[in-house]
Amino acid sequence: MRLAVYDDYRPGVVDPVAGLVTPVTTSSTPHDPDPLGASWWVRLCRDGTVEEAGEPRPLDEVSLRAPVLGPGKVVACASNYAAHVAEMRDDVLPRAGVTGDAWLLDFDVFLKAPSSVVGPRDQIVLPEQVLREGKEVHHEAELALVVGRGGRHIPERDALDHVFGYTIALDITVRGTGDRSRRKSYPSFTPLGPWLTTADEVGDWRELGIELSVNGDVRQQVSCAEMLVSVPGIVAYASQVMTLEPGDVILTGAPPGVGPIAVGDVVDVSIGGLGSLELPVVAEQVAQNPR
Ligand code: MN
């Protein structure tokens, strides 16, 4: 099943070939159009069952939103592809003036603010202060998973049973010194979508390939099989630290080829079988006299 959230935060099942979305419901998860009432979505991630409940509509006539609602956490992985670790060590970190922080090159997990999430038809907004300071803002195209059944101390052998589905993520990042959570949590710095594809439909995550282009030039292209820590390994590792809950989002790390984006660029990411995202890059408009 390909599950989208659209219009007034309503769930629908997508048929990408026909270009249609059909509204769905379940008796245990009555839809609430108030995004703050997202507990119906959390139960849907946990239970994974829906019933079709309406007429299909053309996908290009609806507003697709991020295929998650109010995630309790957005977890992200650092240093999970060897060639990306090398480019960070040899190029990106020295250029950003970051020295003596060898721990940045070790695999680990960190948190992004859930308020950084936007949908597949939104914009990447470069913060005014970051532009003024001339810092590089980079694209990182990543496979993301949405947690189904939660848990703590999940063994790696059972971890895939806790994955509800997969979607495409961008982990937009300000380069420079300081904590990752600050440099990666600005509003719009976590585009997700275009919909969530359930794990049963995806099959083997290692067969997925990520491709990102900027203004049509391919910059990142990788097979997910090249991850240093596997998807089940990531779930097991994160759950040693934090209790994973239904609806939590986990980004699996950046492939090599990260680089700067600028106002006017268009960023395109696709993962075979999961769809594609296309977002323009714009500058934050700050009011001169905010009221
Ligand atoms: Mn990342």
Describe this structure in words.
- With 291 residues, this protein is an alpha+beta fold.
- The chain is 16% helix and 34% strand.
- A hairpin with a 4-residue loop joins strand 2 and strand 3.
- The protein starts with a strand and ends in an 8-residue tail after the last strand.
- The mean pLDDT is 94.
- Manganese (II) ion (MN) binds next to loops.
- The site of manganese (II) ion has 7 residues, from loops.
Give the SSE layout:
Elements: E1 2-6, E2 10-15, E3 20-25, H1 39-47, E4 51-52, E5 57-58, E6 64-65, E7 74-78, H2 82-95, E8 108-112, E9 117-118, E10 124-126, H3 128-132, E11 137-139, E12 141-147, E13 163-170, E14 173-174, H4 180-183, E15 190-198, H5 199-202, E16 209-214, E17 217-223, H6 231-241, E18 249-251, E19 259-260, E20 266-271, E21 275-283
Parallel strand pairs: 7-18, 9-15, 10-21
Antiparallel strand pairs: 1-2, 1-6, 1-15, 2-3, 3-4, 3-5, 7-8, 11-14, 11-19, 12-13, 12-18, 13-15, 16-17, 16-20, 20-21
The protein binds manganese (II) ion (MN).
Residues 76, 140, 142, 171, 251, 253-254 line the site of manganese (II) ion.
The description of the largest β-sheet is: 13 strands, mixed
Question: What share of the residues does DSSP label as strand, in percent?
Answer: 25-35%
Element order: H for helix, E for strand? EEEHEEEEHEEEHEEEEHEHEEHEEEE
The oligomeric state is single chain
Averaged pLDDT: 94
SS content category: alpha+beta
| Poorly predicted residue ranges | none
